[in-house]
Amino acid sequence: MADLCWLCERPLGRKVQQHHTVPKAKKGRATVAVHPICHRAIHANFTNTRLSRIGEDRAALLEDEALAKFVDWIANKPPDFHAPTRRPK
Question: What's the whole-model pTM score?
Answer without folding.
Answer: 0.89
